[in-house]
Design goal:
Elements: H1 8-11, H2 26-37, E1 52-53, H3 57-75, E2 79-80, H4 84-93, H5 97-100, H6 103-115, H7 121-132, H8 136-142, H9 160-175, E3 182-186, H10 192-201, E4 204-209, H11 212-221, E5 227-231, E6 241-247, H12 258-268, E7 269-282, H13 291-296, H14 306-313, E8 318-324, H15 326-347, H16 353-371, E9 375-383
């Protein structure tokens, strides 16, 4: 497929493709093949999760550049895999990735994260411009009618739309929303929760986002409802709210800001309020994230572990409930990929073929990470220590 014309803004996420050179690296190929075989993944074999290598330079690039090189070489068309999601799930389950990851790339990322606040107020808007402002046409085609860009709740549901409605209903029940209450939505996206909560529970919602495109569409979706959408960083907000919710935003906060995030939430919430925090979580505590995801999808992102989450909450909140929805995200991501793939004929006049490969790699590899249980999704219900002594009963 030939690349389509694409505006500079929509092409800016992608590095220029490398020109292949006819060089073979048999030692690198053998080394990689032996390790992948431990996961039941075989180079150029017949299983749908077996990678098909088109350029022999891939092997050395994978070994020297780690996950960044693997992902970029996929965008470049150096290899393909029918079930990319299952390939990665098998690799992660067998922990083969720990033998392949390029330590220098991770060290550079670790030093950068430790030395600088990658999620400062100024930097916070970078992810809005690079990811969420890509184009509402893309997200409207990929997501369900609620425009929820977070894990669905696949409990007694038949499709993505029902799963996202079930998630929104679950969040509202956990918060025990009452008509007339004020609710702050930190990282409101395209207004999925704000619209649902205001329409079905009669609450007044203030939503904040760092994306112009999200603000514009959220305001359209919530027109006529008691919803106010503001483009601002959470650290700049003033006021008091009965309930707080944050769905899929904490991943952008960063370890250097976990304390100020919780302190800000504590300041903004009434003493008898509740806070629902919904976030992707890593299996281990670390600073920095996957170099490919960092470069192409979520700049300055970081996935907290459950230990880091609980430590951040400790000075400010009691954790009343924790629920793990990790496996539900695998199914959600594959549904997004299906929608994206089906809509591609209508999207490709605006996004080139390299973007298609990048977005496919993003959705499918993330699905594989959740399938392997390397990544989780946690919903935490938090209350202040000064809150009522009434027992919290967790809905499911």
């Amino acid at each position: 497929m030939e690349p389509q014309n694409v505006s500079p803004a929509k092409q800016s996420n992608l590095s220029a493709p490398r020109k292949p050179r006819p060089i073979s690296f048999p030692k690198a190929e053998d080394w990689l093949a032996r390790r992948l075989a431990k996961a039941g993944v075989y180079l150029n074999s017949s299983n749908p999760w077996d990678p098909q290598i088109h350029n022999p330079q891939f092997y050395r690039r994978a070994l020297w550049e780690g996950s960044l090189g693997v992902g970029e070489s996929y965008i470049d068309g150096w290899w393909d895999c029918e079930q990319l999601d299952e390939m990665l799930a098998r690799i992660l389950r067998a922990q083969v990735d720990k033998h392949i990851i390029n330590n220098w790339a991770l060290l550079r990322l670790w030093l950068k994260t430790k030395l600088f606040n990658l999620q400062s107020v100024r930097r916070a808007y970078q992810v809005g411009k690079k990811h969420y402002d890509i184009g509402n046409d893309l997200f409207q085609a990929m997501l369900d009618p609620t425009m929820s860009y977070s894990c669905g709740y696949w409990h007694n549901t038949r499709d993505l739309y029902e799963a996202q409605l079930a998630k929104l209903d679950l969040v509202c029940r956990k918060l025990a929303l009452k008509a007339g209450e004020s609710v702050l939505d930190i990282g409101c996206g395209w207004g999925s929760f704000a619209e649902y909560a205001a329409r079905h529970h009669g609450v007044r919602v203030t939503g904040i986002t760092i994306s112009r495109e999200q603000k514009k569409l959220a305001e359209q979706r919530c027109a006529g409802l008691p919803v106010d959408i503001e483009m601002m960083d959470y650290r700049s907000l003033e006021g008091k709210f009965d309930k707080l919710v944050s769905i899929g935003m904490f991943e952008h906060v960063g370890p250097k800001n976990y304390d100020i995030y919780m302190r800000t939430a504590h300041r903004l919430m009434q003493d008898d309020g509740q806070f629902l925090l919904h976030t992707i979580s890593n299996e281990v505590s670390q600073v920095g994230t996957d170099p490919w995801i960092q470069k192409y999808i979520f700049p300055n992102g970081n996935l907290p572990s459950l230990t880091q989450l609980s430590k951040a909450c400790e000075p400010y909140f009691i954790i009343e409930d924790v629920q793990n929805l990790g496996l539900d995200y695998d199914r959600t991501l594959m549904a997004w990929y299906h929608n994206f793939d089906q809509a591609w004929p209508h999207l490709k006049p605006s996004y080139d073929h390299r973007f298609y490969r990048m977005w496919t790699y993003y959705l499918k590899t993330c699905a594989g990470a959740f399938r392997s249980r390397t990544l989780q999704v946690y919903q935490l219900v938090l209350r202040k220590r000064l809150a009522t002594l009434q027992r919290y009963h967790a809905p499911r």
